[in-house]
Design a protein that fits this description.
By secondary structure, the chain is an all-alpha fold. The chain has 8 helices and no strands. Helix content is 61%, strand content 0%.
Length: 299
């Protein structure tokens, strides 16, 4: 299943150049995917479908390694992605975000440096878009994104903390709580990532982003908070919606990582997984920071 995370959606851990991917159905004896979630499971849509009477094969193995049955195949160059790879790359990426945020917090005055923070945010956005449209993960782009995102988060966090003391710590704890809560719920299958779930999250996210864009445009023209969607009672409502959407993205990302490991995605795809998870955690943190500020009367 493809994640709605734009990074995962573009690359999709798909088959490319003979490497293993996992946006395809499993065959007998291999990892299974619920048929209702599998776009290749419907009749006539499976590009890996077997001819009647043919022995099942591994659709993820390179063509020259098909063995007529579901069996392991030679690992792609660099090996297959593992959970350790995902954890280590995510730790490196998030570590850079945190270090850059701490450095910018100490170095810059939040209120006087908002322009610099916005420039860093714009730079991070550009790098994120470049990586999203790359066919393969580029570690240098991902780590550069992490540094710029960290600079922005440090400045904006210092700014919020000036007016709402303790808001940053509460937002960090809230983000951690959401992450581990979704992880536990996903592992216990309390949250089930289905095609319907994915469609709902994608639709809700598009609507949310469009509303926030309209609100920002109205604010630029008329001043204040535009349509009032980021302050007061409506601000609380949309802050909660933003956090919930972030939690849903986490579930989609966990599913994508789980499938990638099960189906033998190349090892370098761990960088893409780390990038996608970092994007989602930054989203949750910013929504949580805004929500805490509103609840404490600092909007």
């Amino acid at each position: 299943m493809r994640s709605s995370n734009p990074v995962f959606t573009r690359r999709g851990f798909s088959r490319e150049g003979g490497s293993a991917g996992f946006n395809a159905p499993s065959q007998a004896g291999g990892p299974t995917v619920a048929q209702g979630n599998n776009p290749y499971a419907q009749p006539g849509t499976n590009p890996y479908a077997q001819q009647p009477g043919a022995a099942p094969r591994n659709p993820y193995a390179p063509a020259d390694q098909q063995q007529g049955e579901w069996a392991p195949y030679a690992a792609p160059a660099g090996g297959r992605m593992t959970m350790d790879d995902v954890v280590s790359r995510t730790g490196m990426t998030l570590g850079l975000v945190i270090l850059a945020a701490a450095a910018s917090w100490i170095t810059f005055d939040g209120e006087k440096s908002l322009g610099l923070g916005l420039m860093a945010a714009l730079g991070a956005f550009v790098l994120a878009m470049v990586q999203a449209f790359k066919r393969r993960p580029v570690p240098a782009l991902i780590l550069s994104y992490a540094v710029l995102e960290g600079v922005f988060l440090g400045i904006i966090s210092e700014y919020f903390n000036t007016y709402v003391n303790g808001a940053v710590m509460q937002a960090v704890l809230g983000t951690m709580a959401v992450f581990f809560g979704v992880l536990v719920a996903y592992k216990l299958r309390i949250i089930r990532v289905t095609a319907r779930f994915q469609r709902f999250v994608v639709g809700a996210a598009i609507g949310f982003v469009l509303l926030m864009a309209v609100n920002l445009f109205a604010a630029l023209i008329g001043g204040g908070d535009g349509l009032g969607l980021r302050s007061g009672g409506l601000g609380i409502l949309f802050g909660v919606i933003g956090v919930v959407l972030g939690a849903c993205f986490l579930a989609l990302d966990f599913k994508q990582v789980e499938d990638g490991i099960a189906y033998g995605a190349p090892k370098n795809e761990a960088w893409l997984a780390a990038f996608g998870l970092t994007l989602t955690l930054v989203w949750i943190y910013l929504e949580m920071l805004r929500l805490v500020a509103i609840l404490q009367g600092g909007d």
